[in-house]
Structure formats: structure tokens, C-alpha cells
Amino acid sequence: MTAPAEVLAVRGLTKRFPGVLALDSVDFTARAGEVHALVGENGAGKSTLIKVLTGVYHPDEGDLTYRGEPAAFATPLAAQAAGISTIYQEVNLIPLMSVARNLFMDREPKNRLGLIDFRRMHTEATRILRDYGVGVDVRRPLRDLGVGAQQMVALARAVSVDARVVIMDEPTSSLEPREVQTLFGVIRRLREQGIAVVYVSHRMEELYAICDAVTVLRDGRLVHTGPLADTDRLTLVSLMLGRELGEVRAEGMTKFTGDHETGTEPVLRAEHLTRRHELHDISLTIRPGEVVGLGGLLGSGRTETAKAIAGALPLGSGKVTVAGAPVRTGSTPAAIRAGISLLPEDRKSEGIVPGLSVRENIALAALPQMSRFGLVSEAAIDKVVETFMKRLQIKASGPHQKVGELSGGNQQKVLLARWLAMQPKVLLLDEPTRGIDVGAKAEVQKLIDELAEDGLGVLLISSDVEELIEGSDRVVVLRDGAVVGELTGDDVTEDRLLQAIAAAAEEAADTTEAVTP
Amino acid sequence: MTVSYEDAVVDKPTVEEPGERGSRRDRLTALAQQHGALVALVVIAAIASLSFDSFATGGNIENMAVSSAFLAVVALGMTFVIITGGIDLSVGSVFVLGGVLAAWGSRYGTVVALLLPLAVCGLIGLINGLLIARSRLAPFIVTLAAMLAARGIMLSITDEGAQTYLVDKKSFFADLGQGKLLGIGVPVWITAVLFITGAVVLRRSRFGQHVYAVGGNEDAAALMGAPVARTKTLVYTLSGLLAGFAGALNAAWLASGVTILGFGMELDAIAAVVIGGTLLSGGLGFVSGSLVGVLLLKVIQNVINQIGSLDSAYQQVVSGAFLVVVVIAQTWLGRRRQVL
Amino acid sequence: MTDLALGKSLPADRAQLMRWLQDYGVYAGVTALLLFNVVFTENFVSGENFRTQAVQVAPVLIVALGMALAIGSEGVDLSVGSVMALATSLVSLYLGYGPWLALIAAIIGGMVCGLLSGSLIAYIGVQPIVATLALMVGCRGLANVFLPQLETVRDDTMATLGTGDILGIPYLALIAAALAALVAFTVKRTTFGRQLLAIGDSRPAAQLAGLPVRRVLIMVYVCSGALAAIAGFLATARLQASDPTSLGNLMELSAITAVVVGGTPLSGGRVRIGGTVAGAILIQLLTATLIKHDLPSSATQIAQAVVIVLAVYAARERGKQ
């Protein structure tokens, strides 16, 4: 097999931001008919590279070659017009407009009067989308579609603008397993058509299922590029993490120590939580000192369960008790008073208050306790803030630095401090280590362990299977908003978890290829 | 007929459609949003014509139609602005300025009387648009400032409001406001033509698609190739132009550039647009609804005037209350649709 | 380079200038206007002129205090002018029971308006602009319903309050200063103030942190309504007349200008009371300067429009950081 033609290539690409060297002399080549995986930890430079390729950023140094010619894209639109299409993590379409209008935006078929020809547009849209496994009335607003179907519409749009290069940034992060299969089908077809695909994902199994080549970035530098078949999973992980193979094997992937001493009486008891279309009769208990994992695929109701327990989602029915005392559901203040604390999944928009200082953020929830007659006691706040900044090793220039300026890991620690200041009984952690760098990840994991040892009941949600398995004493498995299994003791293993999820998924799915572990 | 959902489903799509469950309810909600104002208009008009003998008379209807026309033209521009997710608080002042400029210009002939307000008011709209689209300033504050500036300009050309320019009643320009065609006032015809054009532009032109896209999701619209800044600049310019034109028509109708009527018109225009089913958060709306909204407001005003014992101040109270009710309904319906 | 690249890497010195302008520009502006007037305006440095200016700025300043709270919570209160009108009509209606009862009636009226707009915003989720716009229309109408035309107000206590002074400082200015101090203290030192800032910065985060978001938001608009009502009462006392048709017209704009010029960003999360006070003074001085130099009020309006656009423009540059 001869090497396919280069379509898009960069040499010696360097991009600086104030104080950061985001890309340091990186080479990258996308070839026709090749699916090229772009991997690396957060902060490795993947998104910067993509943004340079698609004209969002302009490189400080380095050359970009597109179809054999030197090129420079001034705007994302210019890159798109040249044939470089991007599918973003979040669907970038207009939810209130119809599916067909979204698909044909800016290249609508017109009639002789120069007006949009809706009939032709609808027929065309229906035909195109059928190829992507989307069979809907294209006149309905896009938001009526599921996320997977919306993603497909975005893909169809991206490809149909005569694309030579399709860049996919974590396209499966919100897809169901069956939708992932459809997506893979489409990618294979793109490959056959000679389109270059750049595929960014954290999910190993997906990379090995669909990609031909791989490029690994770390700290803004290129550390490896070559055919994916030549690189096994463990090697790839060690390249991404920059750790030796032996180290990875010996230490495991996470910093969790393992099982905890647990009390016997549950500190949290959630019974029959039900919410229309989202949660169906979910019951679970957490004992003091126990870490209970919540397993399941994205959209299985994990986040909703945590939010419901924390009072952030109104419930149709259900009961939550903490240490035997009932908690009013649907009220965050009530849940917090009872000792339930939630570290939300979306740290940036639901967790931190970015414009306020570290100090104000830590003191936020406990303000009433640190006030008298509505007046804030600065001394009380200073004491708490000092204690927790030291204990959690929060790295900031000082308590008055804005939280928005901190790294992800330190933001997460500020949030933990906010809740620990409330002396909670139960901690609900929704993706506590997502999007934070390796070092901070390990620190947060160690903290979770310590908190459980101190007697807190912990609910852990994580898409990172290793984290979930190694961190939890027990794992409750969800699917479609219902409990479908529970792993205890020696059963808490990666295999059993995947089996539990897969078994559950197979029950519902017609196809057997639902999950590709 | 295009291929419907049922035809396509035969193909066993692999991507499932989870939204189907609430779709009947969805459609009812959408229907309420789109035609609620129309139903209210018909009901109120019916009750009014049964209750007041003088309501359904030719003279009264003619009067309502013509006086609706000016607000309707302003509301048309406002519809475009609100669909992009913006707001234009300057239209009331621009309307007055347009009227004064037209009356002043009418001594130099109809062309000047029309072009002068269009040029000045269009320019104000253009500046609004550029500040909002290019400099990314908040629409309400920019247009609030423009409202003040337009008022300042109007005052400075009328000797601080002391001078009222008159329009020669025999001129062609005056006919634009006072004349009749087939028994119907010329302003009504002009409004009808503008609305039909507006509807076609919004639904069937590429610019119209951009207007919806910008209001629906600005970032996505930019990535899909919609010229976001140009679209925004255009809608504010359009709003300025239409407000100025409405002012000119009004001056022709009244045969003078009145310096006090029209302030606060922005509120009526916004109310009419919102009552007509256009979403204040942008991305959804239609011009026919705004027309219905205007008529509804005018009918209510007329009814209040018919009830002799009621002060005309009640009109404002009712407008405010109506706006509250519609906005609550909209927010509630919108939330319901999201949950499903 | 393209626009995009320029916007991303704004020169550091220009960004710093903009930040400085937003934080301290208002004080520089006030100083500059003062110096200009001291040098070029006749009879500017006199006790009489000082009293005139102070009396005129007081109502705007009081309204701006409430506006600052609303803007700090990432909202805005467009109904303040109409609430002033409602207050003046209530004062006129209840003056028969004595001025203090009239004041209480006015404040209650303002608080009810705030409660209504606050509930719409906090419970129904209506955008603040829209909710307060509806109130703006409704309250003005209601004021006219209560009191159809201008009526003179004859009350000795109110006359003293509106025109009297202590040691040359008008009562009105003292009241405004006291209220400013009270609001500043509330923002800085109370749980309400802290919670308000957190909600203004990130409402979802505040919600999940268990903050009483709805209660705080309603309180914000109730405060704004009460302050507008007090301003309406004081304006009535100063003019010794109730004019529900024109009192408070365009007041929302002056108040927003004062707040924004004073360095409070429209995006919420930050409230600067000192800046707001200076902002109100700046607008007053600007108007006075133009009038004293024989420029008509139309010029004042155009100047104010320019100032407000400049202020939000400066604030925008900071938002990019």
C-alpha cells in the first residue's frame, strides 16, 4: 500500500499565548482516505492545533500546506469554504430552526424568483439524512431531535459542503452506543471517498475501532506519530501521560487506595426517585465512609440522580433521608442543610463563580453560618479559607485571586473547600476529575479517598472506567434512568462493569453490537 | 408533498427519535404561541361590536386601521430586531424625529419629505447596528442612548420643541397620509405592502434565514457561514428606516410634525411584537403575528375609549398587564417545550 | 492581521487604559468638569450653585443606587421612572394623612412594584428588561389613573425637606448620601450583598451552592422600587407638585448611565457604589455645564447619549480580558 496523498499538513507549528507556549514546533499531517487520531491529555495542545487548522487561531511560526499549496485561513469560515469542516463537541446548529434549514443554511436551493425553494429543500434534506440514519420530518425544529440525531445533522452538513478534511472533536461524547456505530459507518464511508478525517477522542476503544494513524501531543509538543496498529493501548497511554510502561502497570491508572472501612447504617438513603422521562424509581444507599460509584453511559441518568438527591431537580416522587431524617426534595438549600453537597459536572458554569475571589467562592455556601444578623464576619471567613487552602493545597497567588484565573484542578479544590466548610455528611461528586491535568487529578483522587476515610459518604460519577472501578467500594449501574445492576466486593472490576452496562444495553437494543468495550 | 416522517421511518433509521413522545403537546403549544393573539383579537372584537354600537361602524374601523398603520410599520422593524435576539428602544424617538424632518422637508417637495427622514433615521439605525454588531455593546443600552440622541436632534431642529412645522394639505405628500384608494386609507395600503414584503423576506430569502439563525444561536450561525455582524447591522438599520418612514407617514396624516406624540411608542411596538408570538429571546417569530399584536392593542385602546367613564390612562395599565400576561405565558410555554 | 486576531491580542497598554478608564475614569471626569467650571463658568463656586446642583442630583443618585443593585445581579430595572411617578401620585393622594404616611404609602407602592417585577424575574424567569418594561408601562398608567393631572403639593414639612439645608448642605443631599452609605454597606458587609454578587456573576453556580437565589433577586427589585419611591417623594417635595405624567421620564436612562459610567459592568457580579455616586454627579455636572454655557437641553441629551455609549464601550474592553 502506498502512502495516500497529503491533504493538510503543518510543519514546525508554534503558537504562544501570554505566559504559555501552547504548541511548540509541532508537525501534523492528514492524508486522504485516512482516519487520523489526535490524542493527548487536557492541555496537551490538541484544541489549539485544531483551532489553528480551522482558522480560529493564527500560528506564530510554522507553515500550513493544504492540497499541496501553502495556505493560511483567516477565519473559520475561510477554512470551511476551502473544504475543511469541523464537528464540534457541542452541536453547533440553530435549535429553533427546522432540520432542513439547518442543513441547507446559506446554500438553500432557490426558485426562479430567487426565493428559497422549500419543496426541493425538504426532499433533498430527507434524502441526505436517510444516509446518516436519521429519519425525521425535516420541517420540525432541530431541537426536537435527540442529541445523537442533531450530531448527525451537523455531520451531514459538514460533509455536504464538499469537504476534503473533516475534523471531529470528541464527536461521541454525547452519543448512544448505537449512534456511535452509525457514526463509524459514516466515517468509513468518508474514508472510502478519500476524505481525510481527524478524530479527537479520549476513548481508547473508539480509537482502535476506527482510526488508521495516531498523533500524540503532550505539553504542546509532538511525542509520537505513526500508524495506530504499531502502537498498543498501554504504549499509547504511557505516551500520553509521559509515564513509563512499568510505572503505569505497577501503580494502576489512578491514585485510589482501594476499599474503605464503612459504617453499617446508611448515611444517605434515596428511595424511589422518579422524574418524568428522566428517572424511574431509583433507590440507593450510601454508608458513612463508603464510596459508591454510579456507573452507566452518558445519558443514563447519573447526573440527574445526583442532582435530584442534591435538590437541584424537582422530583415527581421519591424520598431522600440523611442519617434517618427526611430531606425536602427539590430544594438545594434544604439538601445542603441536611448535609448533602454536590460537586457539579459542569464546573465552569455551575460550580465556580468565576468573577469572585477564591475566598468568596470558598465562603459562598457557608455565608449564613459565618454571619450574624445578616452581617458577614470577615474573621470567621479568613479562618475557614486559610484552613482549607492549606489542607487542600490550593495553588493561587492568594485568597483574593479570581477563581476564573485558576487551573481546572485548583478550581475543583476550591469547590471541594466550599463544601467541606459546610461539614457535609454526603458528598456527591459528578465527574470530579474531568478536564483537569494529570497531577491535579491524582491529588483530587487522593482527597476523595481521605474524605471517605474521615467518614463521609461519597457518591462518585465518572466516565473514566478505571477511576470508577478503583475509586468505588460498590457500583450502582444505571440505564435509561433506572437501576439495572449493582456490583459489590470482588465484582467491582472493569470487566463486570462493562458487562453490566452491555447486558443492560443489549436488553433494549435490537442490535448486538451495542457496546464496543 | 414532501416526504414525511412516516415515509422515512420505513427505512428503519438507526438514530432513534426520542422527541416524539410530547410532539402532540408540542404542536398545541406552538399553535397557542402562534395564534393565541389572533384568537384574542377575534374574541375581543366580537364582544366589542356586540357591546358598543359605535365599534363596528365604518368610520371607527377606518380610524382604527389608519392609526394602527403607523405603529404596525414600527413593529415590523421591531420584529426583525427581536428575532435576532435584540431590542430597539430608540424607535419612539426616531418616529418623532422622522415626522418632524418630513414636515420640515415637505416644503421642498415630496421627495425631500420622504428621503430626509429615511436618510437621517436610517443613519441612526446604522450607527445602532454598528455599535451593537461590530463593537458588541448591549442592544438595550445602545438604543436607549440613541433614543436620547434622536430626541436631542429633534429638539434642536424645532427650537427646543417650540416650533411645529406644518405640511401643506394640498401637497402630494399630504395625500400619502390622508388620501384614499378604493375607499381605504393610503397608509393602510402602504402598511399592507410592507408587511407582505417583510413576510416574504423573512421566510423566503437568505437574509431572513440569517435573521433567524443569528437569534437562534449566534456562534453556530457564524460557523455556518451567516454574516452575523452584517445581519445585525441591517436589522437595526431597517428598524430605524421603518420607524422614520412611519413618522413621516404620520406627519403626512396629521399634516404637521408633532413634537410630542410618539414618545413611548417603542413600548407599544415591543408589546405588539411579543403579543404576536415572537420570542423575546430571539430565533422565533413572524411578521403576521406582530400585525395581529398591533391590531389587538388598538382594539383594546378603542374599547377603553368607548367606555366613556374610563380614563385613557387605563390604556397603559392594560398594555402593561397584557405584556406581563403574554410574557408569562411565553416563558411558561417555552419552558414546557424544553422539558418535554 | 485580521479583525479576529486583533481582537484576541489587544495590546496590553490599551487594555490597561480601558480598565483604568472603567475604574477611575468617572472620578477623572468629575474632576475635569469641576476644574473646567471653576475656571470658565461664572458664579460656579458659590454656596447657592452648590445647593442647586446637590438638590438636583439627589433623586437621580437615589434611583441609581437601586439600579446598581439590579445591574449587579445581572438585571436592570427600567421601571424606576414610572415608580417615581406612581410614588408622587400616592404622595398626593395620602398627603391628607400627613407627609410621613404619604411617604410610607409611596414606599409601599414602590416595593409592591419591585415585588411584582422581582417575582416575574425570579419565579417565572422573565428577562429583567421585559419584566420591568411591562411595569414601566403599567405604573405610569396607574399613576395617571390615581392622579390625572398635575397638582400642587402644599405641606410645610415637605417644603422644608425639599428646599431646606443644614450648614448649607441641603437635606436632599444628606438623605442621598446616607442612602448611598447604607447601600454600600449592604453590598460590602451583608450576606445579602455577597449573595447578590455571586448570583450576578453566575446564577447556576449560586443556585447549586444553595443560595436563596429567588429571594435575593426579589429583594433586589424591592430595594430598587423602594429607592425609586423615596426619590419620587423627595422630587415631589422639591418641586412642591405632583406631576404623574412627566416626573421620572427618562430617569431609568440617567440612572443606568450613572451606574455604568461608575464602573459597574452590565454583565453583573460587581457593584460600585462610590463610582455610581460619582457617575450621578458627572451627569449632573455635564448638564449644568452645558446649560450654564447657554447650550440647549437638546445638546445635553445628545451629550448624555455619547457619554453612555463611551462608558459601555470602555466596559466592553474589560470583558474581553
Automatic annotation (TrEMBL), chain A:
UniProtKB keywords: ATP-binding, Cell membrane, Membrane, Nucleotide-binding, Repeat, Translocase, Transport
Cellular component aspect of the GO annotation: plasma membrane
Single GO term (MF): ATP hydrolysis activity
Location(s) in or outside the cell: Cell membrane
Keyword Electron transport: no
Keyword Translocase applies: yes
Annotated ranges, domain ABC transporter: 8-244, 248-505
Primary residence: membrane
Topology of the protein relative to the lipid bilayer: Peripheral membrane protein
InterPro entries assigned: AAA+_ATPase, ABC_carbohydrate_import_ATPase, ABC_transporter-like_ATP-bd, ABC_transporter-like_CS, P-loop_NTPase
Name of the protein in its database record: Sugar ABC transporter ATP-binding protein
Organism: Streptomyces coryli
Automatic annotation (TrEMBL), chain B:
A GO-annotated cellular component: plasma membrane
Pfam families, A to Z: BPD_transp_2
Membrane-spanning intervals of the chain: 31-52, 64-82, 111-133, 140-158, 181-202, 234-263, 269-297, 317-334
Localization per Swiss-Prot or TrEMBL: Cell membrane
Membrane topology label: Multi-pass membrane protein
InterPro entries on file: ABC_transp_permease (IPR001851)
CDD domains found in the cross-reference section: TM_PBP1_transp_AraH_like
Major subcellular site: membrane
GO molecular-function terms, A-Z: transmembrane transporter activity
UniProtKB keywords: Cell membrane, Membrane, Transmembrane, Transmembrane helix
Protein name from the UniProt record: ABC transporter permease
The species this protein was found in: Streptomyces coryli
Automatic annotation (TrEMBL), chain C:
Single annotated GO MF: transmembrane transporter activity
Superkingdom of the source species: Bacteria
Transmembrane segment boundaries: 24-41, 53-71, 78-97, 167-187, 216-235, 297-315
InterPro entries cross-referenced by the UniProt entry: ABC_transp_permease
Organism: Streptomyces coryli
Keyword Transmembrane listed: yes
GO CC terms: plasma membrane
Topology term for the membrane: Multi-pass membrane protein
Protein name: ABC transporter permease
Keywords recorded for this protein, A-Z: Cell membrane, Membrane, Transmembrane, Transmembrane helix
Cellular localization per UniProt: Cell membrane
